[in-house]
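Q: Got a minute? One more chain.
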Amino acid sequence: MLKILLPFDGSEYAFKAVSDFLPLLDWYREKPELHLLNVQYPLHGNVALFINQADIKQYHQEEGLKCLQKARDFLDQNGTAYQYHITVGDPAEMIVRFASEKQYDQIVMGPRGAGNIQGLLLGSVTNKVMQLSNIPVLLVK
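A: Always. Here it is, folded:
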C-alpha cells in the first residue's frame, strides 16, 4: 500500500492542499495510506533550563494538535482514514527526514504555508523540501 505524507502547518494554503488532494485519491490503483505531519519549531533561548522536558514535549503536542485540527476535522467528515504525527525541528528538514525514515512513497503539499515567504514562486519550506527530498513531491495548488 502506498504511504503518502501530508505536511500540515495549519495555514489556509496547507488546508487547501489537503482538501484539493482528497478528490485526487482516485488517481491511485488502491487507496493510499494518508499521514498528516505537523512540525513544531523548537523553543528558543534558555527555556529548557526553567521548564522540564516532559512539559515542553506536552506543549509541542498540544500546539501540534491545534494546528492539525482543521485537517483532521475535514478528513473525519469525509470518512477518510489517516494517521497523524507531530515532530519538532526545522520544518523542511524534518519533513524530509520523517518521510525518508518512515519510508513514505510520496509527499503532498501546497506551494506555500504559514512560514515566511522567501521564494517568489514557492514558499521557502516547500522549496527546501523539493531540493532535499529523494521522495517524489506533489504540489497541489
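A: The domain at 3-139 is CATH 3.40.50.620 (Rossmann fold).
Q: Perfect, thanks.
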